[in-house]
Design brief:
The structure is a homotetramer of 315-residue chains.
Chain A: H1 10-17, E1 23-30, E2 33-40, H2 43-49, E3 54-60, H3 69-86, E4 94-98, H4 109-114, H5 121-126, E5 138-141, H6 146-149, H7 153-164, E6 168-177, E7 186-190, H8 209-212, E8 216-226, H9 227-246, H10 249-256, H11 259-269, E9 275-279, H12 282-301, H13 307-311
Parallel strand pairs in A: 4-5, 4-6, 6-8
Antiparallel strand pairs in A: 1-2, 2-3, 3-7, 7-8, 8-9
Helix pairs in contact in A: 3-12, 9-11
């Protein structure tokens, strides 16, 4: 059994654990996008999985799904469908929160996505007659990160939420995956909000319904894999290969050195805990992923807007 | 008498009005920096001047004072002295607020300065034993602007202030001057906070002691002059010149056309109300001004730090 | 007669001069875009106008034409038509040169536009079979400015042109207009290349057919008006108004003070020579203008691409 | 014997090979900085090592040497000493070339460093009398990368060199290391120029004395490790550990599976060839490394400037 798998994707955490009481998974394919849902139903399952109770939806596309504009649009539309299922009816104002550090590329997904989210709350408030009636009030907020502001992100967001009383909060954050193959090909959406310790910025306090007093969705894309995870997985695959091919000698091998010793070696090879594996074109990938998230949100939060209308906003 | 002078500098507003009951001004020179103070003492004077009651200190240096590193340091030290006079004793936590739009160059002064403000609140809170005891808790916060976030800046700042309860708030904002000669040569510090309609972002609500529940300093540098102001001033200077040189013909001239007609012409020549006059090297100027403000704050908010220590932070 | 009018737009220079031997102008309207052509036919006319011999085409749209995506597309298509008329047949490789300083907002138009120009030369050279046959080889080059590189821009561009031997060079540069109303509403295209002293960066040497050995087009948008020009124009309008309304008093007025004295006063009010008048949202305007220029170029340089295909590039 | 080690550091390549005919190494410590020199003397050694003939100097500091301003200054001074040893006497003009993609963080080291290099060539040429005589003519040039410009970097640099005829060219480039521990702690300087296939941008043609007609120094800092290298090294360390601890069972183990099978597994775990391992704070690291390189160059290229004078430039 794998332990200490460092991933923000419920799908990966669930796959590592195998079948688990209190966890349901569903999968369907939708025109080239695999929609995979993990439902965590019990506190016990949440503890075992290291994921809060709730629903996690993963949209998986094939390789480099973000690099092609048509596929980005297709993914954004599929995402919008899933977001709509989780949005409360008549949510009034939506507050989109872009978590992460705008000046640290792999962590900048949230602030970057915000730049493309259609912000309408002030227009609807100050010139309601001039605003297309299909638009709903959306505000966008980038709280920054603790190391830059000296302020707990959750603290700041709670302060703003208390003031403007949104009907739903949607947090966007950069994620860590377990598998390098998912970086840049996967979106995760959940109705659980953000838990302490998750995301690249490693939040200290929760941003969830309990903390904010309204439904909180979380939206993210993995932009890195921790180097230690890569090393650990490589080791596991090797053990599996040895088991299959190696027959009797495997026993001798495992007696020879302890598993923990080997893991320590691997981690050392991969460098300190803060080393991450990331595509060389990480700047481009973050920009593309941000545009998918923003487009998905723009489609889901407003009524019957086309992609062309969204591109042409403000209108 | 001049009316409708559009300037965020109390010194300019006061100069345009001439001597005024309820307004005191002081001036002294300090090693090449002119320190000029305007004290607005009565509600009537505040109304006439269009500036809230309180103290406004202007530091004026000679031409292009920001382009030279030595002079920037000199100005920052003079600024630190003035800030210290306005800081409450034992202020606990200081919250520095960077107003303005980080993505609009002439308006980006606040967010730019924040990047260089030493942020220490989280260090002091989470690892107090590791922190130099001369450091005081400082947090830094860039609320964004209404057009980008959909949120009233004052609303957001109030939410954060309520959460973290600072002993003093210091707002940094880009200003409009009346005279092009002051752009890039002047700093203004006041104990009045920020009033509605001031600054380039044109705040809708106040950020002052009444709104935030603690002393609020305002700190700014003019980065633009409104084109309409330039035109109006050019006209005024011309009238003055005519008066001096023109003798009797002046009467004939002023009868010929009305003053308002001329002003309308001038405004039209200068373009719509949102045209601003700004140096061509505005990006550089904003960066330099931001570094002066941040250095002045870093010197004033902490105890006995040298410029070298501040440059070497984190230490 | 106006002198010393500081404008990079041939249309404005020509309008200031009135009818001039050796200069032909044509105007037509094309679905809301005014296409205005100035043809400078003789060396004498070129000297008087301060513009090199050749053809200058201005596309003028109505107010804030760049702020709306549909109108940007419309303008880009009209621009593409005009560019095609000036492109040599079978030009082989096109080199697009983005002049100006990427780190000075009003001067960053060229480098910004380059970011959106479809670059294909390397694809066609290294994997010709994989490239859509409608694409022609385009390279993009941002030489930087003298103050940042220590290198004469023309010198650097000549070095590159000699190496890669393009069939046409297209220079993009930020321009100064005379009238604030043209900032952000006008595009200028010419077959004359870039002359010394023009553009915001104030080139020292020419980038034209003689210097580079192939046809050189110039493409630009005014992003500023010099403050001194505004002041001068305001004065001129006032004089005109006086002439009309003032009758006999005008003589007395003009005797009273000399024109040059007044101009000096006006210039002083407008600040030093490097002050420019620019819209407050200059960052946004430069981004929008850059996207129009890039889209126009992408449509003109390749064969039968749709706007959607260009957006989806690389394909 | 290790093969296919992917590193731009001659020190690592040499260490992987062990003692080799035609390769000399020297090491000394200089106040906390280890100066390690690899001299490749024969074509055969160059082929075996995969490094061109010439001298490679590595400056290794301890952990996170770049994060502390004092240590950055110390490293820069040590670097300046080494650069001076390799500079030709009376080099006339120096051309500093910043290789890499300014918009891809791990590859942006060269362009970022250029921003801080003191550029003086134009000052000395156009106003020699106003320039401090300790300054020598330095130009700075960022050619961009093939994917963005459509132009071979070497082609463009050769064009510029031919025009301005510098006495020495210094190329700055982001490097790949073999060991994650060297990322952000090591500088490499060589007199060999840049070879095809090296650096993150993977140059296609050489930038060396033969290609450019003058001495060419190369200066770089590793900003990434290829994920495949990490995986391979982890495997090697494990084998070594088994050898030591495992005794007789090692034979059985290695018979069980082939080495190549295992390597293939490891590479697969680490993701595609373009995955890189990089610190999470890569943006910060690149900025800090760039400032060390620029300061080292500024100290070496001019005469007797202090760090303070360099910071205060232009003076």
């Amino acid at each position: 059994m794998q332990k200490n798998i460092r991933t923000d994707l419920a799908r990966e955490a669930s796959a590592a654990m195998g079948a688990l009481q209190g966890v349901e998974t569903f999968s369907r394919e939708d025109e080239g996008v695999e929609v995979y849902q993990v439902q965590v139903n019990t506190p016990a399952a949440a503890r075992t999985l290291g994921k809060a109770m709730g629903r996690y939806v993963t949209l998986d596309a094939t390789d480099e799904a973000f690099s092609d504009m048509d596929r980005r649009e297709h993914l954004a539309k599929a995402l919008a469908q899933e977001i709509k299922k989780l949005l409360p009816e008549d949510f009034g104002t939506a507050l989109v929160v872009g978590l992460g550090n705008a000046r640290a590329t792999p962590d900048a997904l949230g602030p970057k996505a915000l730049e493309m989210v259609m912000v309408t709350r002030h227009l609807i408030e100050y010139m309601p007659e001039a605003v297309d009636e299909r638009l709903r009030p959306v505000a966008a907020y980038a709280p920054g990160v603790l190391g830059v502001t000296g302020l707990e992100t959750a603290e700041v967001v709670r302060g703003v939420v208390k003031r403007i009383k949104p009907g739903v909060v949607i947090c966007i954050d950069a994620l860590a995956a377990r598998s390098a193959a998912r970086v840049g090909n996967t979106l995760q959406l959940s109705d659980t909000g953000i838990q302490p310790g998750s995301g690249l910025g490693n939040m200290r306090s929760a941003l969830n319904a309990k903390a904010l007093g309204c439904p909180v969705l979380a939206l993210g894309v993995p932009t890195v894999v921790y180097a230690s995870t890569i090393a650990q997985d490589a080791f596991q695959q090797m053990l599996d290969a040895l088991k299959e091919e190696g027959g009797g000698e495997f026993g001798a091998f495992t007696r020879a050195v302890s598993r923990d010793d080997l893991l320590a070696l691997l981690r050392q090879a991969a460098g300190a805990g803060d080393m991450v594996v990331t595509p060389k074109n990480i700047d481009e990938l973050v920009a593309q992923a941000a545009s998918v998230l923003a487009l998905g949100l723009n489609l889901a939060l407003h009524k019957n807007l086309s992609v062309e209308e969204i591109r042409a906003f403000p209108f």
